[in-house]
Amino acid sequence: MDMTLNEISRKLIKNDRKQYALFFFSVLFSIIMTGAYGVLQYSPTITNVLADGGSTQTISQGMFFGSMLGIVVFLVYADVLFLKYKSREIGIFLSLGIDGRSVQKIIIREFTTLFQIAALLGLILSVPFAFLCWTSLNIFLKTQETAFSIGWGGLLIALVFSVLSWLILREVNRRYICTLDILKILKSSDENEGTKSGNLLFLILGAALVPVGIIAFFTLQNMGGFLNALLAFMGLAAAVWGVYILIIQCASIGDILKRFCVQAYYKNIVFYNLLKQKIRQYTRSIFAASLLITFTIFGIGFIAAGFVDGYNVALNEPYDYTISTTADRTEITQQRISSIAEETNTAITEIIRLDCLLIGVENTYKDGSTDWGSRVIVSESTFEELCGQEVTVPKGSYTLCFDGSMQYKRNAFHSSSSLFYNPTTGDEAVYTQNEPISIDRLVNSRSFFSSFLILNDDDYMDISSTLGAEYKATTFLLNVADWRSTGVFQNRILEEVISDNDEMIFTNWHNSATFEKTGSKAEYLSYIGNETRIARVWALYPLSKLSSATTQFEAFAIYLMLMLFIAIVAFVSSIMVVGLKLVSTIWDDAAVYENLRRLGMKPRGIRRLITRQMVFVYFIPTVFGCLVGAFTTYRIMLVSGVIYIAETMQVVGVACGLVAVLQLLIFAVLRSRIIWNCIS
Q1: Among 143, 172, 191, which residue terminates a domain?
Q2: How many distinct structural domains can be found in the chain?
Q3: CA-CA distance, 3 to 164, in Å (whole number)?
Q4: What pLDDT is stored for residue 193 in this prediction?
Q5: Is 538 domain-assigned?
């Protein structure tokens, strides 16, 4: 009997090989995408750039696990579709008198074998797939820091994901088989879940919850504190719930339309009732696809915000060049700069010298917590020469000066006084805080003294007289006649600065004043072979508008490539979720279309009905995902101090347009295939 069953099973598998191949590919695709994503997300290439606990790391990891949820939804749909095609096969076994438990074992055995082979192959192929994708992106975004490396932790997460997915689908299969009977199989249709009627108030509520929840999340999270964080995530949950409500109400739009425009409702009554009958199934697929497309748009917008803003800020800095050196190195004097300018035919129109010190200051935050940070200080007289206005700083006090676009610089000064630390002598002294000064475009915001503390001249000299040369810095601020044509001058200045540092760069000099307090140590890198990293992390790197585009590009190359890959994974996953849902929906409704044909509906009308169903399932996620993703990007920019928001939103708009165009092209191909199978 077992042999007979095996022979029957093999014959049925052979007849349904297309369905087996579709399910196999679905599992293979899911594991490859998850594994490749994990390999990159947790690779040294990424983790060496993303700061622990930083916003980019948090968001990218959140999108990783969010995408996995979307892929699980995709696998469930693929599995359910696979089971529907196998329902007649299950019926054959049941009709032969085989009990449900035995049938369940046969199907589970086939499913397990198919899934495990696909999952194992997917895990193996995920590494070369990640390498292929990263190498392809590297063609356009190659820097020294973008070399491919394997994140084994991500591969382990993909393995755990595979096991959990198998357990989830196994339970889905078990329940499906247990509730299946021959009459239901012969009927060839599933019962639809009941649902409440559409409600205009709920539609408005959903539309309101989405923006309000997103605004609350970013606003409250930025305030800090446990209660605000808790309320922030409640706001995020409300936004997600709002999307869910909107999808349900859109699927029940016929009920709402019936109350306000009866004629329009009855004109398309079949379409509206089909939507309502499938509402629960529609909701899950559209909800998952909407979130995935939201990830796509937000991922692109989030990284574009940093890149576009940084690029525009750099090109609009008040000075064309910022050249710095410490007193323990050969000084970059005004005479040396002028000499290099003359040799390279560069006309300097303005040059300002700025002397400063680096000392330790105990930071005090709004919640009362404290830590130590290295701070730049300048004297009263130096500040007055720089800005051309008088300032009074009494002895024993200090004044914080910062750019208006950098309000976060005040976060560490929520006390009326601060403890200063001399890293050379180890002496500590308390200085009272005066009212901060905010001056826009006083110095270059990308330089290490984008904010600084002003001391009384006498206090400044007292500290300077006992401070080691390694904590004293001199910076020259330059403007030239035409910065766009000063490439040779820029390269010569860079060569001189690197040579003065013996080509060994003290990369964390900006934190050196508090090494004793924080337990950190000096980190040196050879300039040769680390040019990109040094340009990004070294506070004394000679900055220029000319090099800003390249430096900004290199600094964000890792972020760009990671987020582009995330966007690709999320977008492709959304397409697969919606695509499988469309196939499943049209397959379920085949009997409805046949009945409509018998009632006299022409093929053209049936094609129109199928098209409307497809448009709803396919483009609602596109619209919701693009709108929510764009709005979320806009809100995070508002609370992050981004200056060039309009320019970033243009990039987001282009991304939304590209998603819409790709969706249209894929929809056209999918529609033609589905209608051909249903009508022909």
Answers
A1: 191
A2: 2
A3: 32
A4: 46
A5: yes
Does 251 reside within a domain? no
pLDDT of residue 205: 87
Q: What are phi and psi of 572, to 5 degrees?
A: -65, -40
- Residue 168 CA to residue 159 CA, distance in Å, equals 14
**566, amino acid identity:** I
Q: What is the pLDDT of residues 601-652, one digit of tens each?
A: 777 877 777 787 777 777 888 888 899 999 988 888 887 777 888 888 998 9
Helices (H), 316-362: 334-343
Q: Which amino acid is at 146?
A: T
Structure tokens at 513: 């004043």
At 559-615, the pLDDT tens digits run 667 777 777 777 777 777 777 666 666 666 666 666 777 777 777 877 777 787 777
Average pLDDT of the residues in 378-402: 92
- If one compares 486 and 572, the residue with the highest pLDDT of the two is 486
Six-digit token string for 562: 């990671």
How far is CA 306 from each of CA 135, 137, 262, 555, 564, rounded to the nearest angstrom? 23, 19, 50, 10, 14
Domain boundaries, position 377: 318-546
Distance, in Å, from the CA atom of 560 to the CA atom of 141, rounded to the nearest integer, reads: 8
With contact defined as beta carbons under 8 Å apart, do 117 and 6 qualify? no
Is position 582 within any domain? no
Which residues 6+ apart lie within 8 Å of 199 measured at CB?
A: 249, 252, 255, 256
In a domain, 474, yes or no: yes
Whole-angstrom Cα distance, residue 210 to residue 193?
Answer: 26
